[in-house]
Design brief:
single chain; mainly alpha; two-stranded antiparallel ribbon; about 85% helix; rod-shaped
Length: about 375
Amino acid sequence: MALRSHLTNVDKLVDLQEERLDTLLREYEEELEILKHEFDTERQMMIEKHLEEMNDLADILFAMDQNFQDRENEAKSEFQSMRDEIKNKNMEEKHALRVNLEMTVEELWNQFQLALKNYTETTEERRKAFEDLKAKDEKSAHEIEVQMRKLQYLSDEIAKLKAKMAANAKECEDRNKVLKEEREIMLAHFQELKGQMNKLREAARAELLVLTLQSNAAIKELKRVTAKGERILKLAEMCRKLETEEEKVLPFYATSLTENEQADLAAVVQEPPAQPLAEVMTDYVALENFWKRYNKVLLDKCALDKEKANMAQENAQLRSLLKQYLDGISVNDEVLSHVNPLFVVNQQTNVKMSVPVSDPRVKRGATVTLEAAHIVKNILPS
């Protein structure tokens, strides 16, 4: 009965411990899911904001490219119109100059022809060389003019592009600075969230470790209690073999309380406990029969110890009387040197009746001691 009740209590304790572990694990998983959900939500918001800013940057770059193309087309059209206007103006001035020059040239032509004829005749070889150099000079002058125009156009375009690049670089630098600041803020927030998550994870790991250690300690304690219970049961089986017939028939003695006292005791037991110790004792009601048997054995032991003490005192008195009797019937130097009832002075003796017995003739025999291990091994049935 006691073993069954003890095992039931142990099972309840184990179930309670397992339920507590399950509850703590479930709370840990719920908190972990909440943290994961918050982290995923913030991560999704960051990704969406990043995509939105990337789209804004793409739109800005596209707008800048369109603006640059429009300005370039406007510059090209303006340059083409100015070029055509200057070209027409040069053509008119050239035509007027050509008419005037043709008249002058025609007048001088005849003179020139006469002089040329004379000069040609004298400097035919030089003229040919001069004409070759002149043709080369005209060609070089034309190429230089073309290259100068190209260089001027390129210089103008480079100046315009530099100005545009400077404006765009300043604008982009400001925007990049703002984006870098936002990125640093977001990175700091992310690191803070990551640190909080790591702290929570470490705290949960520490709580789980403490819980595991406590669970292992509880399991070890339960194993120790189980081993102790098994040892008690073994000892109970051994004691059962040593019980008398009366103890086997009536293992629990009848109570010595009256009916009124028993009623008062039952009323007190049914009342709620007022002290922590009384509340703890309610868990050990099943051990009442055990305590009855234990108290009975303890009372028997106390009675035997008291009877043993009385017998020892009586034995000591008898030994003292026997020694006095032997000293009274013996006469020798050793007897006379000690207290003697025959040695009377002024009708008084020096014998003290409570003197301990130490004479070898009445000395108590040696006490025989048997070890419990020897009894269990050789006397008790296995």
